[in-house]
Write a structure and sequence with these properties.
mainly alpha, Rossmann fold, Glutamyl-tRNA Synthetase, domain 3, 4 domains, three-stranded parallel beta sheet, 20 helices, about 45% helix, about 10% strand, RNA-binding
Length: about 450
RNA sequence: GCCGCUAUCGUCCAGGGGACUAGGACGCCGCCCUCUCACGGCGGAAACCCGGGUUCGAAUCCCGGUAGCGGUACCA
């Protein structure tokens, strides 16, 4: 029981869940699930400005969509304030921390005098006013990181960190250590941007007389231009990924591989296998870039693994339409995302789309128009409106007119779909039905220039 | 500035002293399949940041440089 693995995901609710955050959540979740341990969700909401209920809900919503469930929480950091105050008072009482009115200017002045590399050392204010700073002892502070090995920080370089504001409210580096300790967290898995803060947190653990958890700092994720991920980088948040028509399973697979690779470098790894094979120690130390093209490819693979029933459910949920099964069936191998479906197959339900270029190319030439007319009559004369019959009829028209099949198929396609790209022509005709197909061909001919 | 982390194809991941003629995937190019668009198949181009050192031997270990990133808040 004492050896149970306990991890936590502790986002600050600043808005949508970023894919970097999503990856941290996933890695934590993988560790929890593979070890049979627990994942604790904690909302780091000590910055009241940014923490709104809406922002918190967005995070939870993203996690639920990704199907990453947590075992405890969400815990609000703010609500743990009494405990923070208790610990804070204790540290001050034991002179491990002290109140001081030193300002940023004072810190600057100190460095001017002692050198840039010298960590700030303040003096307690006589009246016990001001912010609370933690005392920094001498020696080296070593972060034992599961991913990077050891990172050594010399204590003398470290400023005495402010752990509580003058008004008594506590700061992140203090609260995070107290909370992780109280929650019995055994593994802190988070972004590399926290690595430099870890020594400060280690100091808090030391002041508490507590054994720190194991740390694992994940390399950061960058956009395609190598810069930090932002709105400018396409679908960079979980909600954007969802809106772009990606499947949670594909997103999990893709994100897992951003910074982690197995020995046999496979790319398609289903979630249960991820749980089994994921190893923190094999996480890369290099920052990686989010490449939506690869996600698109991967999503296509996951889409094609869905049964027709499953795909239909997904597409109907995504588009908000119903009765899409026939269209789904003939489009399955042509779409990469759920969002690709409607532009490709919407014409089956809402009529031909408007694509002047396609009309110009395939429905203005007299040859093409004549082929359309021949095709129309061949289709109307068919005994049965089946795939074989339709194909034979249309190929027959091409043979009789001594033109390539394409010169018959494309005019028909543009007539029924409005555009030059669609699911298979014969299949599309069947889904539409003979009457609707013929009507559309008539309308297209009537609209010729 | 100071402190820290990182450096293999365009991108992601593998290789961690000899098996490297550096492997896989996305993307790209070509061919095949083909009614469009895709899917699928086959083939191709494409990388060890630079400089020293250690070693019989370095992509791999060490040092330096350079570059990128992060931290440096009474933010998280």
């Amino acid at each position: 029981m004492a050896s149970e693995t306990r991890v936590r995901f502790a986002p600050s609710p600043t808005g949508a869940l970023h894919i970097g955050g999503a990856r941290a959540a996933l890695y934590n979740w993988l560790v929890a699930r593979q070890s049979g341990g627990a994942m604790v969700l904690r909302i780091e909401d000590t910055d009241r400005e940014r923490s709104t209920p809406e922002n918190v809900e967005q995070i939870l919503d993203a996690l639920r969509w990704l199907e990453l469930d947590w075992d405890e929480g969400p815990i609000s950091q703010v609500e743990r304030s009494p405990r923070h105050q208790e610990v804070l008072a204790d540290l001050v009482a034991r002179d491990l921390a002290y109140r001081t009115t030193a300002t940023a200017e004072d810190v600057k002045a100190y460095k001017q005098e002692h050198g840039d590399a010298a960590g700030f050392r303040g003096t307690p204010s006589p009246d016990g006013e001001g912010a609370v700073r933690l005392r920094v002892p001498g020696g080296d502070i070593v972060v034992h990181d599961l991913i990077r090995g050891e990172a050594t920080f010399r204590a003398e370089h470290l400023d005495e960190p402010v752990i509580a504001r003058a008004d008594g409210s506590v700061l992140y580096n203090f609260a995070v250590a107290v909370d992780d300790h109280d929650a019995g967290i055994t593994h802190v898995i988070r972004g590399e941007d926290h690595l430099s803060n870890t020594p400060k947190q280690l100091l808090v653990y030391a002041a508490l007389g507590a054994t720190p958890p194991a740390f694992a700092h994940l390399p950061l994720l960058h956009g395609h231009d190598g810069k930090k991920l932002s709105k400018r980088h396409g679908a960079a948040s979980v909600q954007e990924l969802r809106a772009a028509g990606y499947l949670p399973a594909a997103v999990r697979n893709y994100i897992a591989l951003l910074g982690w690779g197995d020995v046999d470098s496979e790319t398609l790894i289903a979630t249960p296998d991820l749980v089994e094979r994921f190893e923190l120690s094999r996480v890369s130390r290099n920052p990686s870039r989010f490449d939506e093209q690869k996600l698109r490819w991967m999503n296509g693979r996951y889409l094609r693994e869905l049964s027709l029933d499953e795909l239909t459910v997904e597409l109907e949920a995504f588009t908000g339409r119903s009765g899409l099964r026939a269209g789904a069936e003939i489009s399955a191998e042509k779409i990469q995302t759920l969002a690709d479906f409607w532009p490709l197959a919407g014409f089956l339900y809402d009529g031909p789309v408007s694509d002047p270029k396609a009309r110009e190319k395939w429905l203005t030439n007299p040859e093409h128009l004549a082929a359309l007319v021949d095709a129309r009559s061949a289709l109307s004369a068919l005994e049965a409106f089946t795939l074989e019959e339709i194909e034979a009829a249309l190929r027959g028209v091409a043979a009789a007119r001594e033109v390539k099949a394409k010169d018959v198929f494309q005019p028909v396609r543009v007539a029924i779909a409005g555009t030059a790209a669609s699911p298979g022509l014969f299949e599309s005709l069947i889904v539409l039905g003979r009457d609707a197909s013929l009507a559309r061909m008539d309308a297209a001919f009537a609209a010729r220039i």
